[in-house]
């Protein structure tokens, strides 16, 4: 009798699990989740289940394959599931709020899960959230330019002034740096910075890229800063482009880098010795640095669209000299010249080619024509 009842239960569990609405992790979108929370009624992936396990007051998780599920728990999953949970916990997400995917770092995914289920930030419309009022002030640890040490610095974000500032001294009246909000890109870089909550802020000064590297011990605080910057940027874009749709605004907000890593490069004569550099592809800007944590890019290359004479090719032009120690070459062709790079491995080479191809395949926007013109002027 008992075995028969178990079989029926397992069958019922499989049926709910197989519903199309439960085909992706409720929190990061990864296909084929095989864990579930029996207090929230959501189907989630293994990595997200690890985060849920750390919030036991809210969520209790089990493996759908390995653990025993009793009838009441299966019924609960049946009545809930990812669609019902989404309608409740994700009902009112501000357009600027960053919803992480499976590829994002731990702190972003953890704070997203806590914001949804623990703090219930998105269940009610128009809630006053710690990142939604257009003003944020506080201390962040900023890496010094000379010795690489992290020091506490006062930061101020202002929607009214459209900028992010930081101050060298707590009581200083004048900011050390005043960054225009529309030039900022921020990305979490735990590995590169060597801190789990490490945040890189990239901005333009005189149309040149500058980096600052920050962190805060508290995961909520650093993610609040991240979303506060996005919120001020969304406000700026709405004022600048009043007819833009929410999706257009979203697509213009800060973005992840398409790819980062070491390559070797040679100079414009293509006879100079190849030098190892750290490269960052931030949409159409390919920047290179001597060290991944440098404040200033040593140089930048604009990567336009295919219809405008840009392409990427595997390999180096025949007879390339200059001495390179890495053997997986690639060439970026622009209307003005060719850029030669080498990668350490074939998979790195293929990843870079794929990243460049993605950018080159997209048509250029009017703003990007202006940036291209600037690059041409200054080169
Ligand atoms: Zn997940």
UniProtKB/TrEMBL annotation:
Keywords: Cytoplasm, GTPase activation, Metal-binding, Repeat, Zinc, Zinc-finger. Residues 7-130 form the Arf-GAP domain. Residues 133-234, 256-361 form the PH domain. One of its GO terms (molecular function) is zinc ion binding. Its main location: cytoplasm. It holds the Pfam family ArfGap. It is found in: Cytoplasm. One of its GO terms (cellular component) is plasma membrane. This is Arf-GAP with dual PH domain-containing protein 1. The lineage of its organism: Eukaryota, Metazoa, Chordata, Craniata, Vertebrata.
